[in-house]
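Look over this one:
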Amino acid sequence: MTSISSRLIGDSGPRIVFLHGLFGRGKNFTQIAKALEPEYSSLLVDLPNHGDSDWTETFDYIDIADAVAGHIVEAIDDDRRPVHLVGHSLGGKVAMVLALRHPQLINRLVIVDIGPNAGGSTGVFDHLLSSLAALDLDQVGSRKDADAALREPIPEAAIRGFLLQNLRPTSAGLAWQPNLALLHASLDVIGDFPDLGDAEFDHPVLWVAGERSDYVSREDLPQMRALFPRTTLLTVKGAGHWVHSEKPQAFVSALVTFLGRP
């Protein structure tokens, strides 16, 4: 059984479960979770192969979604379920699969800048993870050194910082905490979406897109509504793919409006 790590922020109000994107970790939603207190409490999950959660031998959306569903049952009492579920990018696909397979656990669903697309583009992540894999950690003495070495292939300081949060000291030197080799090798699967037959999630769904991102378009709305018929699409002006970190106030406002103040 895959062991999943999570962190609870807040102890009052309805529970929101947050699922991060590729090479992220639950704490990426800390600012959002604290902004939602005390009306909501938040469970920040490290997905398998990320953060403090277990690594797996293969990448499979159904296995991951089922593992997260099991963790929700273990971590959240009966009287706090069903929960609201928020997923970004990779975590958004996990959230969609989880909601379709375990609808009894989920009240409202928020999907951030990703769709149920098969064969979706992962080109930017191929470049990013290739750059990390090419970094010789035996020659890197600190995260500062790694940042300098990655400056040419990854010139955006914010993206380097996001990735380098995953570089951890060990007794043998620096190492990547996520399962870099598996995630890099599985990009085709990560960019895909599993066939779940005629599954449908008939609860309210907020689909959040970044205006400057190309991961979501209105042309994808019929496909989204085939699985999630009560979907509302919201585009956040000025935001790219990482909507919650680029426009946190707008993101929190959208969540509160959609979920409703308890």
User: Anything to note?
Assistant: The domain at 5-118+195-259 is CATH 3.40.50.1820 (Rossmann fold).
